[in-house]
Design a protein that fits this description.
Phosphoribosyl-ATP pyrophosphatase, PRib-ATP_PPHydrolase-like, single chain, 77% helix, binds phosphoribosyl ATP, cytoplasm, hydrolase, 0% strand, Helix Hairpins, mainly alpha
Length: 110
């Protein structure tokens, strides 16, 4: 598994928070603010859903992989804007290991 990719990207995203807006796409998103970043997350979510439907029809998953990468990237920018690193999400997923989604939901609704 390429967990090094997330760590390297997170370090770049952190560096871009103080970079000039005209020097970097990520810095330009931070300069435009949270609403613009959330707009991109929404756009990429929809493009990912459409790519998943298209993959079923065509049997070609390449667009779905591309769009999911765009979605993950923009959610990482969103988290970075709010001073949350990917390790917080990885820790939360790790916490859920061996916790059945059905059990978790049943306990939540008690
Ligand atoms: N992984 C990515 C990455 N994935 C997607 N994108 C950009 O995200 C944008 C996706 O937006 P769209 O597909 O909607 O394209 P668009 O029409 O150009 O976007 P808008 O003008 O509508 O905002 C494109 O500009 C992509 O190039 C990314 N830009 C940067 N990274 C990583 O972030 C690092 C820092 O990037 P810079 O800040 O640009 O140096 C890079 O080295 C990469 O590792």
């Amino acid at each position: 598994m390429r967990s090094d990719v997330l760590a390297e990207l997170a370090a770049t995203l952190e560096q871009r928070k103080t970079a000039a807006a005209d020097s970097s796409y990520v810095a330009s998103l931070h300069a435009k603010g949270l609403n613009k970043i959330l707009e991109k997350v929404g756009e990429e979510s929809i493009e990912t859903i459409i790519a998943a439907k298209d993959a079923v029809i065509s049997g070609d998953k390449s667009d779905l992989i591309y769009e999911t990468a765009d979605l993950w990237f923009h959610t990482l920018v969103m988290l970075s804007h709010l001073d949350i690193g990917p390790e917080a999400i990885l820790d939360e997923l790790a916490r859920r290991f061996n916790l059945s989604g059905l059990d978790e939901k049943a306990n939540r609704n008690k």
